[in-house]
Amino acid sequence: MLTAYQTGLLDTVNAEVNRRVMQRPDGPVDLWQVATTEGDCEDIALAKRAALIRRGFPADRLALAVAWLPEDGRHVVLIAHANDRDLILDNRLGYVLPVADVSWRWISVQSAVAPRAWFAVAA
Fold first, then answer.
1. pTM beyond 0.90, yes or no
2. Fold annotation for 4-120
């Protein structure tokens, strides 16, 4: 279970990064890097992950996930693992929401304990 502080931290960081970082595509080469002032969805998700860890959120409770959205195509978000549910931090939303509240087609998810490992999500 997340503490009240951790839940508030998720909301705060999601809103702060969404406000500070302008959504922009990378261009012909898709670079994954922590966004500071602009970036695409994975860059913004990486910025949120870095900000949360810097503020004391446990790194092993955070993972990137790739989904397919009918209106946007491939989209990367940050997932925060709570004991009772997983929460999405999305650059397109000003709030954090449970994974169970979306009908996205999940493609892959990063291991929270071994960040270089990714796992396909069965359809």
1. yes
2. C8orf32 fold (3.10.620)
